[in-house]
Design brief:
Elements (H helix, E strand, L loop, with lengths): L1 E2 L3 H12 L5 E5 L2 E6 L13 H9 L4 E4 L5 H8 L5 E5 L2 H9 L5 E3 L10 E6 L13 H11 E12 L18 E8 L2 E2 L3 E4 L3 H10 L2 E8 L4 E8 L1
Parallel strand pairs: 1-10, 4-5, 4-7, 5-6, 7-8
Antiparallel strand pairs: 2-3, 2-9, 8-13, 9-10, 9-11, 12-13
Helix pairs in contact: 1-4
């Protein structure tokens, strides 16, 4: 199986250009394999879960759509809500397709490398906390977010408390149970393994406070998932 750093982009392009509905497969050493139906990345507002709908309706001002994928959230923000939105993704192919779908402002770059711009809303959906990777990176995340947020700005981030995987009892050991490793495959190609962070509400509130951010849980999903609004003070 060949290596491919841009599994998402490869699948997004194949679906958009050739209607190829091959799923993205998700692998973790801790869990059974799962799939992401590629069509899900092209959903419209009516098809989105309530947490995502709520997040989009809470956006204001200049919005940064982090990890935009095929651009579904940005399209709604710019076309329906008439907001100024910058869509970013580390996948060059995803950005190309988002642009072809009509997203006006796009950039192929890493959130943590973004500078010299200010936003009113930082939007981080589809387990937006994931890109933080590990708990030890949270302080750096809040520091960087503050540097690109306006004083009255906000972060809209969703995540999940994975405690349900352990029968609601925190597992023993030094490793936080929400720190996972994943890789993805598509057809005969596979990505490198990467870190991905799920964080429980209580811990997110604690770490936010330590970094002088308020944290309000504004929406809960049906399965331990939630939407948080984080504001600097």
């Amino acid at each position: 199986m060949g290596k491919n750093k841009d599994i998402f982009g490869t699948a997004i392009r194949a679906y958009f250009e050739n209607k190829d509905e091959t799923d993205i497969e998700v692998h973790s050493p801790d869990f059974e394999d799962d799939v992401i139906p590629i069509s899900y990345l092209f959903r419209d507002f009516d098809e989105m879960p309530e947490i995502e709908k709520t997040a989009l309706e809470l956006c204001f001002g200049k919005v940064l759509d982090v990890g935009c994928g095929a651009g579904s959230h940005s399209l709604y923000l710019q076309d329906e809500l008439k907001l100024d939105c910058l869509a970013i993704d580390t996948s060059e192919a995803a950005i190309e397709i988002a642009r072809k779908r009509g997203v006006k402002n796009t950039s192929n770059q890493d959130f943590f490398q973004l500078k010299d711009e200010r936003f009113d809303t930082i939007l981080m959906l589809m387990n937006g906390s994931g890109i933080i990777g590990k708990l030890e990176n949270l302080q750096g995340f809040f520091t960087h977010a503050r540097s690109i947020l306006n004083e009255t700005g906000q972060i809209l981030m969703d995540s999940s408390d994975l405690i349900f995987l352990f029968d609601d009892e925190v597992p023993e050991g030094n490793h936080y149970y929400g720190e996972l490793k994943f890789s993805m495959s598509y057809k005969n190609e596979r990505s490198e393994e990467f870190d991905w962070l799920y964080i429980d509400e209580k811990l997110l509130k604690k770490r936010a406070s330590e970094n002088k951010f308020s944290c309000e849980i504004v929406k809960k999903g049906s399965h331990y998932d939630y939407l948080a609004v984080l504001k600097p003070y």
